[in-house]
Every structure is written in structure tokens, then in C-alpha cells.
Amino acid sequence: MARRTKEESAKTRCAIIAAAREVFQRNGVSRTTMEQIADAAGVTRGAVYWHFADKTAVFYAVRDQVALPLMDRMNFELLSGKTADPLQRIELFLGALTDALVGCAEVQSTFDIMTFKCEYVDEFRRELVESRHVHMELLASLTRVYKEAARAKLLRPAMSPEIAATDTMIFLSGLVRLWLMDKSGKLVRKRVGTLIRAHVAGRRAPPVLGGVAAGRR
Amino acid sequence: MARRTKEESAKTRCAIIAAAREVFQRNGVSRTTMEQIADAAGVTRGAVYWHFADKTAVFYAVRDQVALPLMDRMNFELLSGKTADPLQRIELFLGALTDALVGCAEVQSTFDIMTFKCEYVDEFRRELVESRHVHMELLASLTRVYKEAARAKLLRPAMSPEIAATDTMIFLSGLVRLWLMDKSGKLVRKRVGTLIRAHVAGRRAPPVLGGVAAGRR
DNA sequence: TTATATACAATCACAACTGTATGTAAATCA
DNA sequence: TGATTTACATACAGTTGTGATTGTATATAA
What is the pLDDT, as a whole number, of residue A76? Predict the structure, then answer.
């Protein structure tokens, strides 16, 4: 009824996003009504329409809330990582993403929505296009890192950096998808760490004679 | 207007499924109306409701039309394959699925619908559950084949059959997903064969001294 | 202190989709 | 050759969601 202060307004906006995330996950994006979002947030449709132009805007707000910070962290792990060993940087990168998924309910919900509760048509097709760009950039980054590994003779010789990078991207995409499907844990959830280590280990060149230590921990 | 003969009726049913596939892909399942399906099939909603109880029934008919034959073929390649080499059987299995995807427009559309144009809530949640079962069985089959490979000393010793199987399932899931996303071909479409060969080659044990030939072609 | 913009709530008109009920003409059966 | 289904088309009723409009009380700026 009464007008709120700026910070209260920001909290309302935040509550709407959180509510939308829950309702999106439960009912799917298209079946979710603005009223359901409003109810879940404890406001009326008027409030939702005040903060967001329409359902599409709410959807992209939900996405951005987890995707933007995540992208930053992923780029950091891959590019400006703490480790000299490029293959270990890949491993840390994969670990960082799955850790974020495993450790944060908001990330889980959002990924679940994006993967299983959204139809990428019309206004939502944009998201697919952007996702494609993200994948292209990821592929480029991974290729660079694998090339670095190849120069340092750390990459298995039979494996080209391009193929290795594509394979890792495929691995990541499949891993996330199956992790989301696997509520029981029997498929992949219990073994994410092992799977990542095996994936990276599989492309590490066998140690040369009495050579340099392979950065295992 | 006039009543059709049985075969004409079957053709109508088929036309409805084909029309639904197209409209589902263009508009997404939830935004597709029965009238759109009917129009695309050149009939009225009455005809669609005659052949199918509701939109959900149409959806599952679209799915079954490609999923059922595909599952048979995949099981065949994996289990009762022509090759003795278990790793090559895995390669043939992966190739069979991607070939079906690359070579058949109906398979492409259906996979695209299932991956990007459907929200798995309420009546459609069933599909996710079934998909999980399919993945469990696939994992079991793959594990069996990799165990066979391990017994024959064909599997890289550092890799456990269970992890190899899970990794291959992840690879397949990611490959299909990225293939569908990659309309341009720059990500994976142009290199599916290479990627599959590299995936399988990566888990093959290095040839022993002057030992048995490793089934490369 | 007043004017205005803000942050919502409440109401309304409209369109769209669904499921069902009814109509109908031809195919099939007895 | 009638009777009965079948395979649809057409018409109708009911619900639901949307966007827009209007209302309103308060924070904030001048």
C-alpha cells in the first residue's frame, strides 16, 4: 500500500527473483504466471510489473543473478589461474564449476530451469544464441590452454589441442546435464571429483623416463 | 467431412505426428496449440482429438516414433555387435547414434524438441524419469562392455571400467547436446567422427611391445 | 511545505486455448 | 440392405492469463 524506501524496493525486487526461481523450477517457465510469482514473493502482480516489463525480463534476471558471477569465476580459473600447470588449471576450472553447482542451491535451481524447465523459442531463443557464444569463447579459451600444455609437452602427443578442448567442453556439458538429471546420485553425483580427475589425467602425457614431476597432488 | 478408410486414417494419424513435430520445434511444446497442429496437418482439431487424448499424447507419440527404433539399434550395436573388440563396439555404438542424428531430419527435430523445446514438469516429468532409467541401463551396458575390454587388456589400466563407462555416457550426452546447439558447425558438427575416435582411442591401452595389432583403421 | 515521483494494489477488458458436445457422411458389418 | 461405427468437422462453454489502467499512500526533492 505504502510507498517503500529504496532499499525496501531492492529487497522486493530480490524477493521476486527468488520467488520466480522457485516457481519456474516447480511449474516450468511457460506455465508460470505472473500471479504465481507475485504470490510466492508476497506481493501483487502490480509489484512484479513495476520491477519487470514482463515474464521474459524476470527470466533473464533469474539467469543473470547466477550466470554473471559464475562466468567471471570460470574465466578467472582458466586464464589467470594460480597454477603454472595448464592441465591442472583445466582441472581447477572444471572443479570450480561443479563446486558452484554442488554447493549452491540457487545455482542448482537456475541450471535446472535453464536445462529442463524452459522452451527456447521466440523471446527465449536469444538465450540459446548467447549460450552458443559462451561455448565458442570457452572453446577458444580451452584451446589456448591445451596449446600451452602441448608446448610444455604435458599433453598426450596423439591428442590435438583443438580436439582435446572440444572434448573437454563436451565433457563439461554432459557432466552438468547428467548431474542435474541424477537426483539419486547413482549416475554421477557421487563421483564428480573422480570423473574430472580421470578426464584430465587421460590427456596428460605419460611421464618421460625419470623426468619432470607430473603435478599430481 | 466424409469418413475415411482405415489406411487413410493411419495416414492422418501419421500426418498429425509429423505436423506436431514441426510445430513443436518452431513454437515449443507449451505454446503449441491443438489448432496449430491440426492446421499444419491439414485437418481440424476434431481429428486430432479423435486420434489423441490431448497434447501430451501427441508429444509422446512424436517421441516414440524416433526413440523406440533408435533404442533398439543402439542396444544392438552395443550388445550383439558384429565386432569382437569391445572398444570398437563402443565406437560403433557412438557412431550409430550420431549417424542417425546427422542423417535423419525427424531424429534431429525430435531431439531438438526434447532438448530445447519442452519443459519437464507435470505430465512431462514422466519423460525425465524414463530418460533417467534409460541412462542407468546405458551405464550398465557400457560398464559391461568396458569390463570385457579390461579383461582382454584392451582398456588403459589406469582407468576403471565404471569410470570409463560413466565418462562415455557423459561424452555422448554432451556431444548430442552441443551438436544440436551447433547449427553453424563450428563447434562440433564438422568433427563428430574425429571426436568419437579420439574419445575411444583415449581409453585404449597402448600396444604392448611388438604385441597384438590395435584395431585402428 | 508543497509538488512530484515512486512503489506498489486493485480492477478491467480482451483474447486465447481447452475440452466437450453435437452433427454428419461414408465405411464396415451382420 | 439396413444398422452401426468410424473418422472426422463444427459449434459452444468455460477458464485463464495478460497488459493496461486507475488508485493511493508515502518517500523524496525543491
Answer: 83
CA atoms of B150 and B198, how far apart (whole Å): 18
pLDDT in tens, B5-31: 888 889 999 999 999 999 999 999 999
d(C-alpha A61, C-alpha A17), whole Å: 7
Say yes or no: Cβ of B2 under 7 A from any atom of strand C.
yes
Note the pTM of the prediction, 2 decimals. 0.93
| pLDDT at A208 (0 to 100) | 64
Protein CA A46 to sugar C1' D23 (Å): 12
Nucleotide closest in space to B4 (CA vs C1'):
D7
How many Å apart are CA B139 and CA B123, to the nearest integer? 26
CB B98 within 8 A of CB B175: yes
Q: Is the CB of A120 under 7 A from strand D?
A: no
A1 sits within 7 Å of strand D by its CB = yes
Task: Name every residue whose Cβ is closer than 8 Å to that of residue A77 and which is 6 or more positions away in sequence.
Answer: A89, A92, A93, A96
- Position B2 scores a pLDDT of 62
Please give, rounded to a whole number of angstroms, the shortest distance from the CA of A1 to a CA of chain B. Answer: 35
CA–C1' A60–C2 (A): 40
User: Is the CB of B30 within 7 Å of strand D?
Assistant: no
Which 3 state secondary structure label does DSSP give B114?
helix
In the predicted model, residues of chain A with pLDDT beneath 70 are 1-3, 81, 208-217
What chain A residue is nearest to B125 in terms of C-alpha separation?
A116
Of residues B152, B61, B153, B165, the one with CA closest to residue B110: B61
Whole-number Å distance between alpha carbons of A193 and A64: 27
- Tell whether the model's pLDDT for residue B3 goes beyond 90: no
Cα–Cα dist A81/B36, whole Å = 52
Confidence of residue B209 (pLDDT cuts 50, 70, 90): low
- B217 pLDDT more than 60: no
Q: Could you tell me the sign of the dihedral formed by the alpha carbons of A202, A204, A206, A207, in that order?
A: negative
Chain center to CA of B12:
26
Domains of chain B (ranges plus CATH)?
Answer: 7-52 (1.10.10.60), 64-201 (1.10.357.10)
Q: Check if A191 contacts B (Cβ < 8 Å).
A: yes
